[in-house]
Amino acid sequence: MTRIQNTCPVAIVTGASRGFGRAVTSALLDRGWAVVGDARRASELKTTARELNSTQLIALPGDVTEASHRDALVDAANTVGPLRLLVNNASRLGPSPQPALSDYPASELWAVYHTNLFAPLALIQVALPALTDNAGVIVNLTSDAAVEPYPGWGGYGSSKAALDQLSAVLAAESSTVPVYAFDPGDMRTEMHQAAFPGEDISDRAEPESVVPALLRLLDTRPAPGRYRAADLLLSGVRQ
Predict the structure, then answer these.
(1) Among residues 94, 153, 128, which one has the least CA distance to residue 12?
(2) pLDDT tens digit string along 84-103?
(3) In which element (H, E) is residue 26 found?
């Protein structure tokens, strides 16, 4: 692995090959960050790395639910510079169309929770020493489905509700590393399309239009908590 100058801050962004993860990765690279990005689809991640065309991007294909891959992400970050940001963006929707909870297969629900809850915590546990040493930040991607009882969203929504509470408790337990739950709102992504098969979602926001809200959160570092992109973009963060 080529060593990047160790003066630039480093971020880990999971699910970096497409959608919001790709948009965040691109924005951070533009700001001079080094980014360790992953994705389960190696071909898509390779394409993203080629299109972003930055020596500051370390692309590591793999599944964040696997311990060896999580270790590799943190090892890569620590190799190229000070780890100052972890964005737990990778998520699993579950079956499409989404079933009612009364019909939700247990194996599918386990897979959703494994990706959306257990893996982010496990990655945080591995990354926390470096984030503590480098005054880093943790951002966990959540959803309005965590707080609104949408029919059909019981699996995904409840996993994100659990992630919200996990984020809040982590923030209460850590006085040195801010932990944020960030709700980007509806976006025009592959996963959102899978949630509405056959429907036109062209009215949803492009992921790139939501990134400034996340950057504002990182720049201002308000009190740890749950923040909606729409609120950040409209009124800014009150500290």
Answers:
(1) 128
(2) 999 999 999 999 999 999 99
(3) helix 19-30
